[in-house]
Write a structure and sequence with these properties.
The protein has helices at about 10-20, 30-40, 45-60, 60-75, 85-90, 95-105, 120-130, 130-155, 160-175, 185, 190-200, 220. By secondary structure, the protein is mainly α. It has a single domain, classed as TorD-like (Orthogonal Bundle), CATH 1.10.3480. The longest helix has 25 residues, at about 130-155. The protein is globular. The protein starts with 8 loop residues before the first helix and ends in a 35-residue tail after the last helix.
Length: about 260
């Protein structure tokens, strides 16, 4: 039997962060410690933040940690873990991004969980499996903009999870190059009129309004496999794109 290939640093780090962005279990503190070890030599700034996050996790009892996770991510849209939500909000075209992520999960034989295909845990698994050039394109077109908005919201709340998201940004920048800077205007959700105007053409690049140089509409920068961006027109079922429900999971999770 051939020896299995060693797990890459990118897979180990992104896999550990993904587990820390999942509902807490009995391994949570150990995972934070592991992430600190993985980061301390190459990314000391990220490691310092993870040390702060680990201290928080150690001080919490299991129930308090679960409640904190739920309050932070499940009932707070500004901190939601769904990447497509931060890119498109409730806009109809988010369905195309969900389809794209489901295609990528299937392509790399990554099993779906109960979360939507654009949940950050799914997206990180895809990034870890992709060739470097494709992973870089997905990171810059879609993941960095979402993480920027998430970190801003977590930082304003002084949430301990801000350290984890900041560490993720630094990790992705190490693997895929620095993210483009965002201004305050870039971080604002658009008005309904802005969203309607965007449907008329290419003058408004994406739901989140103006983007920094080099960042266009995520669906154009990261299109469906073998296709191009297109808005759904009219009714009918035959030959049209698949759409995935946009509902986010805001239910309070409790262990039984």
């Amino acid at each position: 039997m051939a020896a299995s290939e060693p797990v890459s640093e990118r897979v180990r780090i992104l896999g550990t962060i993904s587990r820390l962005l999942s509902y807490p279990d009995q391994h949570y503190v150990s995972l934070a410690e592991l992430l600190y070890v993985l980061l301390q030599s190459e990314l000391p700034e990220a490691a310092r933040g993870i040390a702060e996050f680990g201290r928080f996790a150690e001080q919490c009892g299991p129930y308090e940690l679960e409640e904190t996770f739920t309050r932070t991510f499940d009932v707070n849209p500004a901190c939601a873990l769904e990447v497509g939500w931060h890119l498109f909000g409730e806009d109809y075209v988010r369905g195309q991004f969900l389809v794209r992520m489901r295609e990528e999960l299937s392509r790399y034989e990554i099993p779906e969980s109960s979360e939507l295909p654009d949940h950050l845990t799914h997206v990180l698994a895809v990034l870890a499996a992709m060739p470097d050039d494709e992973a870089r394109r997905l990171a810059h077109a879609c993941v960095f903009p979402a993480l920027t908005k998430m970190h801003r919201a977590l930082d304003s709340m002084e949430s301990p999870y801000r350290h984890l998201i900041r560490a993720l940004v630094l990790v992705l920048e190490q693997f895929h190059g620095p993210a483009e800077p965002w201004s305050e205007e870039d971080l604002l959700m658009p008005s309904k009129q802005h969203s309607m105007d965007r449907r008329r053409g290419d003058t408004h690049p994406g739901q989140n309004g103006p983007r920094p140089p080099g960042l266009g509409d995520p669906l154009r920068a990261y299109p469906l496999p073998g296709g191009t961006f297109s808005m759904p027109t009219g009714g009918g079922c035959g030959g049209g794109p698949e759409f995935v429900p946009l509902q986010m999971n805001y239910s309070l999770r409790r262990k039984t």
